[in-house]
């Protein structure tokens, strides 16, 4: 006789709580990515999940706390991987860093996350782009998590371009950061402009070109100033 299947183990209260939290964060991440911070309410999240809004309020003290939790769930990993890449490059380059090498260390791994990380990371990419490009909500999150990393990047670029003015380096970073988050936004505009020759979902195509293009901009501005 075939053995009777064992009954499934009942999840502990901690496991149930963790599963509920994950579902709330996943659902919220999807909605915030599509509609932005101001386009989503707690009720929208609850309706998508088929639950009462009170359950979400039980876990999160309002929409801002929910948004912060969505952002913070992935941002620490993003900062850690970029920091490690800059550390490794600085050791390998020694006294001879290059602009392209620095930018590649900073951006290549980030692109890889969005290429292989699934829908959750792509949703986070859109949210990150919203926070990076809009004043007000979320700005303090960028200050806390990314400003020290950005300043580290700029200090390395100063080492590669010792005669560059701080103004040129900060503006160059601003241009680079803006272009990067436009890619993460996946607006579909490049699809329409190119008649689908290029697609905004193609992070691999962007990754292959991004650093080379941006490094050229840094170098051109540096040469012009000299």
Automatic annotation (TrEMBL):
GO terms for molecular function: DNA-binding transcription factor activity; transcription cis-regulatory region binding. Signal peptide: none annotated. This is TetR family transcriptional regulator. The keyword Cytoplasm does not apply. Residues 18-78 form the HTH tetR-type domain. Keywords: DNA-binding, Transcription, Transcription regulation. Residues 41-60 bind DNA. Pfam families: TetR_C_30, TetR_N. SUPFAM superfamilies: Homeodomain-like, Tetracyclin repressor-like, C-terminal domain.
